[in-house]
From TrEMBL:
Keyword hit for Transmembrane: yes
Cell cycle recorded as keyword: no
CAAX prenyl protease 2/Lysostaphin resistance protein A-like domain: residues covered: 143-241
InterPro entries cross-referenced by the UniProt entry: Rce1/LyrA-like_dom
Record-level GO BP terms: CAAX-box protein maturation
Name assigned to this protein: CPBP family intramembrane metalloprotease
Pfam families the record matches: Rce1-like
Organism of origin: Flavobacterium potami
UniProt keyword list: Hydrolase, Membrane, Metalloprotease, Protease, Transmembrane, Transmembrane helix
Membrane-crossing residue ranges in chain numbering: 21-44, 64-87, 107-127, 139-159, 180-197, 203-223, 230-247, 267-286
Amino acid sequence: MFLEQGINPENKFWKYLLGSAFIIAASFVGQIPLTAAVFYKTFFEGKALPTTDSDFMKMFESNVTLFLVMTSFIFAFAGIYFVVKYIHNQTLLSITTSRPKVDWKRIWFSFFLWTFISLLSFSIVYLNDPEKFVLSFKLVPFLILVVLGIVLIPIQTSTEEYVFRGYLMQGFANLSRNRWFPLLMTSLVFGSMHWFNPEVVKMGNIVMIYYIGTGLFLGIITLMDEGMELALGFHAANNLVGALLVTSDWTVFQTHSIFRDLSEPSAGIDVILPVVVIYPILLFVFSKKYGWTNWKEKLTGNINIEEINQDHAKLNS
């Protein structure tokens, strides 16, 4: 069982606090190239020192910015590997899935399913109001974006999934010894990490419904499927398609995408629809394909610590 793989008498919650601090520190180390580039622009090229995230993002050509920002996720992922192996004495597989090996078919199914839905949704919006968008396609910058995106964006999304649906999900399970608390806490923390995104500033706090709801959806499919392969595929598709297909001046990333959204941002049905309609449909599709049952126990039940301790005792005897 996925959560149970992280339950161990030696796996105290303070280790997860220590591990989280180490992962954050590794991420900050990964930001050194970006910081160095900013100081170079400031002191050697006379650029104004940026004071906001938006200023940072606009200081460089967008592909360069993407590369510099994504570097921190490479270091963070290395931090996850170190923490899991040397602080918790676990394998990376143990915070990925309860299966004997990673099920790549699950990852690809989730990836292509969400890619299809994302493209279909954009097509409907575009055909309904094409004046909101302008074609901004430039072949060479776009091809560079494709290469950078395919390599770096899955690292970014996988890092986030390993932190929230893997590492912290098991960490909160160690603390609470049940399933609902890890699901709730990882969703809230995941959502709060997006609090300072430009989208929230532009559209208001109501957009947090989308971020927290997305975290809840990813947590549910991880617990129901006893592994985070589906979450890995979904998250990668969501960010990669978004980066390649459409960008705007008010999103966290501006990329050399195919289209640029010219509309003024507003929080409406597009914020609520995925959480209350599309995600439940996806849950239904996944549940039918993978035969999910016993929803209440898997999402809210207690974890049998005595049984886990007996299993550990047998392994150590």
